[in-house]
Every structure is written in C-alpha cells, then in structure tokens.
Amino acid sequence: MIVPMKKVHLVALKDDQEKLMVNLQKCGELMLMASSEAVEPVDTYSEENIIQRTEKSLKFLKKYQEKQKLFGNFQEVSYSDFTNLDPKREERLSKIEETEERIAKLQSENDAVKESVLFLSVWKDLDIPLNQLESSRYVIWHLGFGEAKNQNPIQEIMTEAGSEIQFLGQGSEGLALAFANYIDDDAAVMEKMRMVGFNEIKLPKNPKTVAELISEKEEMIRANLSEIENLTQQMKEHSREINDLKLLNDQISSLKEIKEAPVIRTVETIYLEGWARSDRTKQLKTTIEEVTEFYDLELSDPLPEDNPPTCTKNNRFVESFEVITNMLGVPNSREIDPNPVMSIWYWVIFGIMMGDVGYGLLMAIIMFLLIKLMHPKGNGLKLMKVLFFCSITTIIWGVLFGSYFGATWHPILMEPMVDPLKMLIMSLIIGGIHIISGLLIKAYANLRQKKFLAALADQFSWIFIIAGAGMLFVPALATVGKIVALTGVALILLFAGRAAKTIFGKFGLGLYTLYGASNYMSDILSYSRILALSLSTAVIAMVMNILAGMLQSSIIGIFFSLIVYIVGHLFNLIMGLLSAFVHASRLQYIEFFNKFYEGGGYEFKPLDLKLKYVNQVNMKE
Amino acid sequence: MNEGILLAVIGAACAATLPGIGSAFGVQLSGKAASGVLAEKPEMFGKLLVLAALPGTQGIYGFLTAVLLMVQIGMLSGNPAALTTAQGWQFFGACMPVAIVCFLSAIAQGRAAVSAIHMVAKQPDMSGKGITLVALVETYAILSLLASILLIFSL
C-alpha cells in the first residue's frame, strides 16, 4: 500500500543546526523539499574532490589486492566510527596517490629507456667510444644502415677505395655499418654507397662505447624495476586497508549530503520544510527531541495542489517486485498501489514462460548463492530477489508441464509441445483474467471516490463483455455467456456516452466506445506470447538433449555430451531468463497497467547516510 | 527423398536461416552502439547487455519453427512421413510467416535497440522504458511465430 505523507514544517535554533542535521540523517525519516527562497549555494568543492580522489584510488588499489575476492566482503561499521573523521584516512589516500604516480612515472621511464636500448643494441659491437668517431684531417667517419644483401658490393667499394669498414649487427632498419674514408675519396665513395642503398645516421656523442651505454641503461632499468617492486609491495599493504578508503568515501558523501540540504536561515533560527511518513511521525519527533527541546514542529496533510513523494509499504514478497513497477515509473502518491496485484501476476506469468523444474532449481540455487556471497546492493539486489522468487513458480509450472531440463516426464496438466492449441487457449484465458483484474483495480479506485456510475459503465461493462465472450466458447455456459456479454454491451451503449449533451450524442459515443473492443482483442491476443516463450524454452531444451544424446556412443563421446548438456542448458537458461523478464514486464506495463495506472510520482528519499561501499552501519554503537 | 519432403525441408531451412541472419544484423547494430557507450561509461554494461541482446530472439523463433516442422513430419525420430507435393507446399507456406517477418523485424528491432541504447546512455534511469519500447517490435515477431506454429500443427 502507498503510505500517506505528512508535510513537515520545522523551526529550530541556528545553534542546533549541525547536531540536528546529523541526527536527522541518522534516523532517515525526513525528506527535505528544495525550496525556492533564500537557499544560498553551498561550496562542496572539497568534499567532491575527496570523493573523486577516493574513487580513483579504489580503482588503483583493486589491481594490487592479493586475493582477488570473488565474493564481496561485507563491511559493517559502527555509527560512532562512521561519524569519526580520522585524518589518517586522508593521509593514506594521499600516500596511495603519490605511490601510484611514482609507479606510473617509473614505468614510462623504463619504456623509454627500453626503446633506446633496442635501438643501440644493433651497434653494440662497435668498440670505439662514440666521441672518438670524429673526423680528423685525413679521415671521415660514417655510421649508418645498408641493405644486408648488398654486403659484398659494399665490401668491394670499401676495398677499392682503401677504406676501413666494420659490419655490425642486423636491425629492423638493415645492416649496421661503420666505416672510415680518406677525405679525398669521401665524396666518390659516398656516391657509390648511396647507390647501394646506404642510409647515414648520427649517434649521440658520448665518452663511452655503445656496449657500455647499453649496460648503463640496463642498470637503470633494473634499478627502476626494483623500486617498482618496492612500491608495489607498499600498495599491496595499502590494499589490505581498502575498507578505510571505502569508509572515507561514504563518510564524505554523507557530509556532502548534509551540506547540500536545503535549509532556510535567519539570524538566529533555521527553517526546514519537507515530507515524512504519516506512520512514523513519532520517530521524527523523538529524533528532534534528542538534540534540543527548543523547536516548533508542524505536521499537516498535503493540499490537493501539492505533489508529495511516494512511499510504499509491502510485505517482503511484494516489496521485491516493486522494482518492476519502478522501472516503468513510480506510482503517484494518490493512486492505488499496483504492486500487490502485479507481483502475483508477474510471479505466475514468469513461471509459465520458464516452466521447467531443472531451470527453476538452478535459478533458485544461483540466486541464493549470489545474494549470500556477493552482497549486492540497490537494483542488482532487487532483480536477484525477483528471480529468486520466480524460481518457485518456474518449478511449480515445470511439474505441471512435466518438464525436467527439457525431458518430459509425467506432465500433470498438459504438455505444451504436444498440445499447443490447448496451451494457447490457457494463455488467452490467463490474459482475459489479467485484464479483468486490471479493470477491477480501476473500478475499486472509482468506487473509493464514489464514482459509482463510472465504475459500472467503464469497468464492469467491459468485464461482463470479456467474461461473457469467454463463456461463449464453453458449451455449458454459452447461454449465460450471451446474457452477460449483452448486458455489458447494453451498459456501454447506455452509459459510456453520458458526457455528451444530446441523446443522439450519447448513443453515438456509446457505439464509438464499443469499437474499443478491438483494442481489448489485441490485448488478449498479446498474451499468446506466453505460449510462444514457454514453447521456445521447451523446444531448445529438447534440442540440446537430442544433440547431447547423439554424442553418447563412446567414452570420449560421453564427455562431450556432458559439455553439450551443460553449455546448451546454461545458454537456454540465460536466454529464457532474458525473454521471460522482458516479456512478463511488458505484459504488466502495456496490457495490465494501461487499464488503471497513472504513475508520474517520485520516490520518497529521506535524508540518510550515503552507503555506496559500506554495507551496514550499526546504529546502536 | 520425395518432393513433398523436399519442399517441407526447404521451408524449414528458410525458417532457420532468414531470422538468424536478421538477428545477427540486429544484434550487430545494437552491439556496436553498446560498445560505443561503454567506451565512455563502463559501468553501464548490465543495462546495455539486456538492450543489446533483445534483437536476438527472432533467430530463436526461426530455429524453433524449423525444429517444430521436423518434429511434425517425423524427421527427427527417423521416419519421415510420406508427404505429397501439395502437403510439401503447405509446410513450405507454413514456414513463411516466421521466415519473412522475423528476418525484417529483427533488423528493425536492432535499430530500435540502438536508439534505446543512446537514450539510456544519457538517462541511465530510463532503461526500463527503453526495454519496453524495444520489446514492442517483438509483438509482430511473436504473432508471426504463432501463425507458423498453428499452421504447422494443423497440417
């Protein structure tokens, strides 16, 4: 059910503001309304800065965590720890950032040095120190790359000119060469060299030989690597305290929330305006009284032009399915909560679409393990709960259809693959009843507002038509069906046009409304997707079984057929879950909700602790 | 193999290939869009996966129809019934709704999924509405599947 809201006006002393806000955040009962007057913009720069830095560092630290925990850890913190801003945490954050920066710098330095080592390694046999490769009065030195296949022609050019040449290593640019020419012959020799594809390069002047340079650089790489090793060790130690960073993030987020809360201030007082649940106003009063006895609290019912937030209160089963409605849009605070009825229908329809005992068992086990071990939060947790509950109906319908991992055994109700027409009729009947229940909800809403004629003319008339049309197909009830359906038609003709002025207008509008029957027909036909989806899951399961069965001729074959079983059924399970989720939701959104649902509300989000990483705060300590 | 069975097999082959091609294209379109969004927002993978996978169902429907036809004429159990040429044409015709509609609707659904993915990239809370919009296209694929199944089972 949707809990009625109370509007809250609270006046208190400015001196109590800090303690009051913290206490309000702790109890989480008041949703503050943003108000247009006199709310000064607050500077949350430093909080946002810390939040950003912690998120970045958390990403770094994940790499260094030693035992990659497959199952999330459950972090529980006492309230006194949560509110204690220990400066050591910020220090740790800074240290982590420094270390990460240094590691990155060392690694890029190493990359650059490795590049140059690679380049120099071709020249390592050149045993002359590089700064002595200067040209003298009679000799000019050249260094460069030639083509390996031209080694002999090059040798000839050299011997002919009386030059000295040393062939060095082979690199990606060719064969490395070092040679010296007599200064007079230089131009001629270089001309010939260029014709055999010689490319000259210059190496940097350095009092060491290439080999010494290379070993120097390699020493640098080694030193860097060992420093990286050290720093990595430090990061690993930091990663053991990763909970510190997570706590810091949540603490600062909560503080930021308080800072940004809309509070109107005068010289000595503060004024807060907001919404609270009407069934929890006592808790709100107690929270305020814990801080101060000087306050004025006014609780009033929302006016017709107000737009209060929506807060639903349902049992654990229905509560899990609220996520389905909220994905479409939150109900508005004045309408009837659709979730109790929707949850049952979703539960049943999902079960028919999956309809297999084996898959239902797998779903139950997997969802149970995921929830217990991974401690998911928010929407992920809600969806897992939905799937867990739906595994129950999947198993029930699986027993009714006799489907066990695709193999058929003792179907109690019917076998969809053998009797698709019977299954189709069942789907359409389910559709009819679903639509009727949607109409009943709208009728209830109308009756609640004393709109009796509307309920009769708009809802009950159609219910009679649908039920009557359904009964026409059952020979025993055919006459009853005819009477009921005709009553419905008469009701529409007489009353649907009651808004029109003339008698002719009334009948005309009534006739026009009867054309709406085509909409109802297409709605009911839409439920045939229940047949289609349950059939598709069943057939693919059967095909996987056939494929696996074909391989069972030898021992190795049995091994392969086991793989086919596992992979095939997992694939079918996942595809089935996706389709069933989407189409069961779609049936609620389009065929069911459009009979009565308005939506357009917003969720009741009171001021409370922002827990993004911490799982639970123990309020008692 | 007599001509009747040949025609029925060709029908089943069309039902298996065309929707598969359509789904492949549809999922390609949505996969490309999802990859683009993930490059900027890696945390949205779960929501995008559902949207990207939605155009894939038509291929399954086509496969289903082919298998159902094989079951109906007894091919899978090893004793194919002796079909006349007329019956072969009937089975061929029965496969056509799924073959044609699922082929085109899968590509269409892929395009719808691309738009929904772009929308969810800007408004991550609207993923439910995006999924609903994309699932609307599937109505026609399901209707064609139903038509084919009913035709196959009444022959």
What does this molecule look like?
- The complex is a heterodimer of chains A (621) and B (155).
- By secondary structure, chain A is of the alpha+beta class.
- Among the domains of chain A are: 1-39 and 262-311, Alpha-Beta Plaits (2-Layer Sandwich); 134-202, Alpha-Beta Plaits, CATH 3.30.70; 420-526, no CATH class.
- Chain A starts with a strand and ends with a strand.
- The longest helix of chain A has 38 residues, at 555-592.
- In chain A, strands 1, 2, 8, 9 and 10 form a 5-stranded antiparallel β-sheet that branches.
- Chain A contains 20 helices and 13 strands.
- The radius of gyration of chain A is 39 Å and the shape is extended.
- In chain A, helix 2 packs across helix 4 (87-121), helix 15 packs antiparallel against helix 16 (478-495) and helix 16 crosses helix 17 (503-514).
- Chain B has 155 residues and is an all-alpha fold.
- Chain B has one domain (3-154): Four Helix Bundle (Hemerythrin (Met), subunit A) (Up-down Bundle), CATH 1.20.120.610.
- Chain B has helices spanning 3-40, 45-53, 57-72, 85-122, 127-154.
- In chain B, helix 3 runs antiparallel to helix 4 (85-122).
- Chain B is elongated, with a radius of gyration of 18 Å.
- Chain B starts with a helix and ends with a helix.
- The A-B interface holds A 326-329, 380, 417, 420-421, 424, 525-526, 528-529, 531-532, 535-536, 539-540, 542-543, 546, 575, 578-579, 581-583, 585-586, 589-590 and B 46, 50, 53-54, 56-57, 60-61, 63-64, 67-68, 71, 76, 127-129, 131-132, 135-136, 138-139, 142-143, 145-146, 149-150, 153.
